[in-house]
UniProtKB/TrEMBL annotation:
Organism name: Oncorhynchus tshawytscha (Chinook salmon)
InterPro entries: FN3_dom (IPR003961), FN3_IL27B_N (IPR056621), FN3_sf (IPR036116), Hematopoietin_rcpt_L_F3_CS (IPR003530), Ig-like_fold (IPR013783), IL11/IL27_subunit_beta (IPR053073)
This protein's record includes keyword Mitochondrion: no
Keywords: Glycoprotein, Repeat, Signal
Gene: EBI3
Domain Fibronectin type-III as annotated: residue spans: 164-263
GO cellular component: membrane
Protein name as it appears in the record: Fibronectin type-III domain-containing protein
PANTHER family in alphabetical order: INTERLEUKIN-27 SUBUNIT BETA
Superkingdom: Eukaryota
Keyword Membrane attached: no
Length: 264
């Protein structure tokens, strides 16, 4: 009898506990409370690590790092960008948003993050860099759910990428089947005496529907004569710049200029 009574009390205690637990899940009208669904996920997520690209259009003292603005559906993110050389003090680089795409064309064709407007990117400028020195970069996105870092080691030599030459002009040389191409070095480059640039010219034409292209070997002059052209044919001319020793990457090609050789 005593044992039965005890079991009975335990049973009701258990029922009581289960009902208490369930009432936490069941709302007053008995329907199951909705658990936040997938559509609001981004609202609760920490940021993803930023997809950072760095390049130096003004070797050796300055470099730029850029990453896409995340989609508007995510929580607001603040970025902390720091860089330091081994054993050196940590320097801040202050990121700012740019609406105009700061990157030359190949990067601009990179897939952006879905939902972000094309060209909305963050940019930060790394200054006072030293030659042949390894740096550590840390770009961390922080929102109220957490943070994520992009960590990268680089030397400025690895990431050299000049801007394209400017003021490119193409002139027909009268009476000759030649074009004179001239340009000015990219003004963003830091020092043309200590760190000279070299250039390449490429030209395209179309012959009865077949495209042709010639790219000349690199040279230091800022003009070039293109010989052996055909009358009444149109040529599309572009110029790029690169560091004289071949560090890093060439610039993007300048915007094409089309010139037609007159009839002889
Ligand atoms: C962006 O969206 C397209 C289709 O809308 C999808 O195919 C692609 O995988 C998405 N890219 C990323 C990075 O989410
Ligand atoms: C990167 O920077 C963030 C924010 O300053 C910091 O919390 C994190 O520890 C750093 N990561 C490394 C590996 O230094
Ligand atoms: C390019 O041309 C403009 C207009 O003629 C001139 O003001 C500018 O100085 C030139 N830039 C360079 C780098 O020569």
């Amino acid at each position: 009898m005593y044992v039965q009574h005890c079991v009975c009390v335990l049973f009701w205690l258990c029922v009581c506990a289960v009902v208490t637990l369930l009432s936490g899940v069941l709302s007053s009208d008995g329907t199951v409370l909705t658990v936040p669904s997938g559509e609001n996920r981004a609202e609760r997520d920490p940021p993803s690590p930023p997809e950072v690209r760095c390049w130096s259009p003004s070797y050796p003292f300055k470099a730029l790092c850029s990453w896409p603005e995340p989609p508007q559906t995510q929580l607001p993110i603040q970025y902390i960008a720091t860089y330091s050389m081994k054993g050196g003090e940590i320097q801040q680089c202050h990121p700012y948003p740019t609406s105009v795409h700061p990157l030359p064309s190949p990067e601009s064709s990179l897939p952006g993050v879905n939902g972000s407007s094309p060209g909305a990117r963050w940019l930060c400028v790394l200054k006072g860099l030293k030659l042949y020195t390894s740096y550590k970069l840390n770009i961390t996105g922080v929102n109220r759910m957490g943070s994520a870092s992009h960590l990268q080691a680089f030397t400025v030599e690895d990431i050299v990428k000049p801007d394209p030459p400017v003021n490119v002009t193409v002139q027909v040389i009268p009476g000759k089947l030649r074009l004179l191409v001239k340009w000015a070095p990219p003004p963003s480059w830091s020092d043309h005496t200590l760190f000279p640039l070299k250039y390449q010219v490429r030209y395209h034409w179309d012959n009865k529907g077949t495209p042709h292209e010639i790219t000349l070997d690199p040279f230091e002059d800022t003009k070039k004569v293109l010989p052996g052209l055909s009358p009444e044919r149109s040529y599309l001319v572009q110029v790029c710049s690169m560091e004289l020793m071949g560090l890093g990457q060439s610039s993007d090609w300048s915007l094409p200029i089309t010139v037609t050789i007159p009839a002889h």
